[in-house]
């Protein structure tokens, strides 16, 4: 961004450095009093008497004010190599207030003559750079809202500059107030900064910095590196506010602030892949997780179709580099959250999401494991019946069972493990068992009969694998309970159960549920194979029955309590059928 272009003003190029407006007083004096090649006479006016580009000199009052500003700036510059102290910071903020007001006054007075307020524009821009050094000194942050300095409005004034007509000023104000300050404060690990951080969060929420951040995003041109970085950091600011807030409704507030959720969706929709798109996809998945309201909004804005089209890019190609891997995984996570809202599952079905996921699995690309995760989400629960039926109709079982028979190795790039893969596969099969009926369910059951019951043997192998995992998990639960006891905390049943689920109990429950379904299918050869395999491993149906009963007892509560109770009774009936 070039402030000169915006205001049709060409700054002096003889002293142009990284920023043409960062001209120190020493530079001014050297230029004015005859450095080599200088075309000015040695009788040139001192810095505080410099005229603007049209030749109009400052008044006596303006020159006096300029002298005072230079004196204050000199005091600040003298301490630039060291940390700012409170006295210097107070002077800095007071001077900032003067420069801001002067710029505002001149903009009003000379609205049609930008050259007449250009000097004040430069001064304000340079002053923001001087304030920037406070970003690494959290102990001085309270001065931003100190009532004895500018009536406590320093932070508010900085935020207000975000809507300054001059885009350079606005960009710098945003970077300073919303990003640099907050970022650096969050980087501080000292406990004494925690309270300052909390106050800063409150101030940002109070003055609606979220809307300012979204406004920043909408105005940034990502073809320019500095603006792309500003957009990236603005998203980072929003994430920091979410992480630091104690407000349970913060996700909803952030999503609604300046239509941030919709902006994220639109940004993800654009074809250009850069760090902003990757971060936008990540934030989209964060805002969708566990928020039915946000899931509903995205569904209404054709978000399911948008996410599917973005993921189609990875159907036949692997992501290039870590950036594209992160993008792909974030898009999958967002889609998994979106389809948690039941009406969106119908949209997923209508948009042929199952076909895309099935093709991704067949292609054996890096997207395969995440595609399995999506299928697991859309076929789960009572709301997954339509997708379960469709999945069998599109020959999804033909794609699914080869992966059931052989677990692929861990994918180091995506982080998907063998356990993740096995959990997704058996969970999909378990959901299909629940939701299918008639001939479609029979097709599923027959898979475990064909090829001399090979898939039944594989299922029982997985049963013993995860049963052994749970034996080891019990030791970990006991160890964790002992550690908590030393800290004076008692591990309750819910904590212990959650830890067991994390260690593989959920996968074991799904495996054993499938076993009881097969055992109760009425196919004698399946019963015989199950009993034979268990006997060979010196086990029995009793173990499986206890796992399924425990699963039924812990189904939990939900919106449809009647359906949950029916499922609980069905599971218990199946378990008792193993007698």
From TrEMBL:
<keyword id="KW-0539">Nucleus</keyword>
<comment type="subunit">
    <text>Component of the PRP19-CDC5L splicing complex composed of a core complex comprising a homotetramer of PRPF19, CDC5L, PLRG1 and BCAS2, and at least three less stably associated proteins CTNNBL1, CWC15 and HSPA8. Interacts directly with CWC15 and CDC5L in the complex. Interacts with AICDA; the interaction is important for the antibody diversification activity of AICDA. Interacts with PRPF31 (via its NLS). Interacts (via its N-terminal NLS) with KPNA1 and KPNA2.</text>
</comment>
<keyword id="KW-0597">Phosphoprotein</keyword>
<feature type="domain" description="Beta-catenin-like protein 1 N-terminal">
    <location>
        <begin position="63"/>
        <end position="174"/>
    </location>
</feature>
<dbReference type="InterPro" id="IPR011989">
    <property type="entry name" value="ARM-like"/>
</dbReference>
<dbReference type="InterPro" id="IPR016024">
    <property type="entry name" value="ARM-type_fold"/>
</dbReference>
<comment type="function">
    <text>Component of the PRP19-CDC5L complex that forms an integral part of the spliceosome and is required for activating pre-mRNA splicing. Participates in AID/AICDA-mediated somatic hypermutation (SHM) and class-switch recombination (CSR), 2 processes resulting in the production of high-affinity, mutated isotype-switched antibodies.</text>
</comment>
<dbReference type="InterPro" id="IPR039678">
    <property type="entry name" value="CTNNBL1"/>
</dbReference>
<dbReference type="GO" id="GO:0010467">
    <property type="term" value="P:gene expression"/>
</dbReference>
<keyword id="KW-0677">Repeat</keyword>
<keyword id="KW-0175">Coiled coil</keyword>
<dbReference type="Pfam" id="PF08216">
    <property type="entry name" value="CTNNBL"/>
</dbReference>
<dbReference type="GO" id="GO:0005681">
    <property type="term" value="C:spliceosomal complex"/>
</dbReference>
<feature type="region of interest" description="Disordered">
    <location>
        <begin position="12"/>
        <end position="39"/>
    </location>
</feature>
<dbReference type="InterPro" id="IPR013180">
    <property type="entry name" value="CTNNBL1_N"/>
</dbReference>
<feature type="compositionally biased region" description="Basic and acidic residues">
    <location>
        <begin position="13"/>
        <end position="33"/>
    </location>
</feature>
<protein>
    <recommendedName>
        <fullName>Beta-catenin-like protein 1</fullName>
    </recommendedName>
</protein>
């Amino acid at each position: 961004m070039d402030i000169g272009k915006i205001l049709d003003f060409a700054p002096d190029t003889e002293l142009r450095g990284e920023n043409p407006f960062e001209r120190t007083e020493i530079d001014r004096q050297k230029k004015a009093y005859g450095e080599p090649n200088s075309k000015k006479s040695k009788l040139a006016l001192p810095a505080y008497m410099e005229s603007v580009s049209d030749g109009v000199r400052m008044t006596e009052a303006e020159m006096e004010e300029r002298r005072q500003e230079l004196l204050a700036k000199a005091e600040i510059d003298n301490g630039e190599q060291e940390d700012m102290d409170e006295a210097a910071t107070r002077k800095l903020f007071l001077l900032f207030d003067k420069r801001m007001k002067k710029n505002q006054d001149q903009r009003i007075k000379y609205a049609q003559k930008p050259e007449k307020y250009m000097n004040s524009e430069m001064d304000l821009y340079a002053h923001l750079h001087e304030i920037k050094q406070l970003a690494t000194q959290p102990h001085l942050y309270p001065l931003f809202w100190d009532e004895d300095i500018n009536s406590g409005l320093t932070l508010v004034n900085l935020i207000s500059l975000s809507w300054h007509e001059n885009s350079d000023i606005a960009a710098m104000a945003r970077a300073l107030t919303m990003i640099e300050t907050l970022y650096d404060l969050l980087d501080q690990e000292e406990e004494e900064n925690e309270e300052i951080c909390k106050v800063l969060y409150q101030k940002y929420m109070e003055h609606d910095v979220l809307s300012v951040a979204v406004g920043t995003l909408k105005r940034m041109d990502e073809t320019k590196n500095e603006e792309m970085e500003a957009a990236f950091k603005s998203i980072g600011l929003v994430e920091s506010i979410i992480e630091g807030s104690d407000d349970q409704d913060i996700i909803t507030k952030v999503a609604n602030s300046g239509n941030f959720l919709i902006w994220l969706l639109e940004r993800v929709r654009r074809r250009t892949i850069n760090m902003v798109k990757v971060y936008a996809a990540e934030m989209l998945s964060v805002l969708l997780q566990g928020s039915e309201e946000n899931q509903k909004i995205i569904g209404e804005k054709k978000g399911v179709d948008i996410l599917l089209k973005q993921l189609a890019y990875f159907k036949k190609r692997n992501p290039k580099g870590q950036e594209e891997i992160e993008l792909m995984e974030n898009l999958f996570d967002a889609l998994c959250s979106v389809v948690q809202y039941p009406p969106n599952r119908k949209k997923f079905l209508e948009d042929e999401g199952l076909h895309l996921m099935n093709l991704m699995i067949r292609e054996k690309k890096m997207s395969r494991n995440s595609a399995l995760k999506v299928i697991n989400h859309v076929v789960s629960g009572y709301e997954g019946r339509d997708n379960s039926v469709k999945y069998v109709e599109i020959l999804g079982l033909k794609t699914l069972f080869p992966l059931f028979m052989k677990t692929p190795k861990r994918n180091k790039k995506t982080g998907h493990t063998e356990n993740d893969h096995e959990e997704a596969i058996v969970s999909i099969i378990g959901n299909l068992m629940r939701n299918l009926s008639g001939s479609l369910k029979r097709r599923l059951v027959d898979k475990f009969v064909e090829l001399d019951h090979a898939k039944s043997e594989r299922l029982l192998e997985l049963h013993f694998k995860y049963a052994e995992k749970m034996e080891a998990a019990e030791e970990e639960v006991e160890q964790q309970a002992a550690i908590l006891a030393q800290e004076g905390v008692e591990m309750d049943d819910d904590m212990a159960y959650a830890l067991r689920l994390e260690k593989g109990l959920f996968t074991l429950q799904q495996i054993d549920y499938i076993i009881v379904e097969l055992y109760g299918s009425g196919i004698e050869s399946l019963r015989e194979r199950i009993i034979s395999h268990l006997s060979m491993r010196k086990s029995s149906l009793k173990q499986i029955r206890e796992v399924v009963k425990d699963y039924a007892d812990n189904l939990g509560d939900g919106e449809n309590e009647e359906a949950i109770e029916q499922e609980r009774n069905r599971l218990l009936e199946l378990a008792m059928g193993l007698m």
